[in-house]
TrEMBL record:
It is found in: Cell envelope. Keywords: Signal. This is Sugar ABC transporter substrate-binding protein. Gene3D superfamilies: 3.40.50.2300. Residues 60-317 form the Periplasmic binding protein domain. It comes from Planobispora rosea. Residues 28-47 have a biased composition (Low complexity). Belongs to the bacterial solute-binding protein 2 family.
């Protein structure tokens, strides 16, 4: 599999702010403040409840290289949130897209006997065994985003709703085409990395949502979460289909290349839905002049929530909004649809591609 973690480029300060606000809502009884577009630096952790200093812990962190916006946002959100707590010693290892290098880095954290480990694997299947080594050594693992197949390899999983992304995109496209009275539409799908389970879940949700309108995907191709691939794939698809009604692009980072190809081809007879919720995609939506009309969220704020959950687990605490004494075994974030009508509210949470 070619560079299985390449996913996304750089982060605006607003994404860090948004991450802190979202994660606070997960772990505290205090209502989360609405993020301000003007905010540019992470705020201090609010006093009270689970955010009060507790037992000192050491938290290991490993993720892929930040060569795309979404992954860069993951790393920055994690660092910023960990820095809010005086009781957390944050130990990130060198980010890498090399499977063996990530395994070695995680092994170094196990040897260092960290209190808890937050791990976003390049590939859940290939890092499953080293995650299991951590849990067998008594180190709870918070599995972020790409899931390990063995539930014994992690204490808690937190991530986006990949199937829900597809469903949201499918309903937006299906409903709009049905309202326009379009019969037998040409619907194109540009995936991320086709071999990843998360991509397969997105495609499954998309196909099943479209089916409720009597529609199906006309052509599907993957772009590896890369800008240049997005450009090449979109160019090929547009050349192969002289008329298109709608496109769903799984990833706003590769969408930079997709949009460039669309503009180069001079095509605008269709509308497009993106995926993840990048700031540049939101600005395209906000302009009202782009074929990009919506994007469905897969927010890197999940990294901030993972840090907060890992801290609670290591300190033996539960989530104060829940009755149960321990953090849940899995948390799936909702995929929300961003359109011109609500984009101003989501823009502070965006990451730069």
């Amino acid at each position: 599999m070619s560079n299985p973690l390449a996913r996304r480029g750089f982060l605006v300060g607003g994404a860090v702010i948004g991450a802190g606000a979202l994660a606070t809502a997960c772990t505290s009884n205090e209502p989360a403040a609405q993020p301000s577009p003007a905010a540019a630096q992470p705020t201090n952790a609010p006093a009270g409840g689970n955010d009060q200093p507790g037992k000192q812990i050491t938290m290991g962190f490993s993720a892929p290289a930040a060569d795309h916006g979404w992954i860069a946002a993951i790393a920055k959100n994690a660092q910023a949130t960990a820095g809010q707590y005086s009781d957390v010693e944050f130990k990130p290892v060198e980010p890498t897209n090399d499977i063996n290098a990530q395994i070695s880095a995680v092994e170094s954290l196990i040897a260092a006997k960290v209190s808890v480990l937050v791990l976003l694997p390049n590939d859940g299947q290939q890092l499953n065994q080293v995650a299991r080594q951590a849990t067998d050594a008594g180190i709870p693992v918070v599995n972020l985003d790409r899931i390990f197949p063995d539930k014994l390899s992690y204490r808690t999983w937190i991530g986006g709703d990949n199937y829900g992304m597809g469903v949201a995109a499918g309903h937006y496209i299906g409903r709009k085409l049905k309202d326009k009275g379009v019969a037998d539409p040409v619907i194109l799908e540009i995936q991320g990395i086709a071999t990843l389970p998360l991509t397969q879940e997105r495609s499954k949700g998309f196909a099943e949502a479209l089916k409720t309108y009597g529609f199906s995907v006309t052509a599907q191709q993957d772009a590896q979460f890369k800008v240049e691939n997005g450009n090449a794939v979109a160019t090929n698809l547009l050349q192969a289909h002289k008329k298109v009604d709608a496109i769903w692009n799984h990833d706003d980072d590769q969408g930079v290349g997709v949009l460039a190809a669309i503009k180069e081809a001079g095509r605008n007879e269709f509308f497009m839905v993106g995926g993840a919720g990048s700031a540049n995609a939101m600005r395209e939506i906000q302009s009202g002049t782009s074929v990009l009309e919506a994007t469905v969220t897969y927010s890197p704020t999940m990294a901030s929530s993972a840090i907060k959950l890992a801290r609670l687990i290591a300190q033996g605490k539960g989530m104060s909004d829940l009755v149960e004494n321990q953090v849940p075994q899995s948390i799936t974030l909702a995929s929300e649809t961003i359109t011109k009508e609500n984009v101003a509210r989501y823009l502070p949470l965006g990451f730069e591609s």
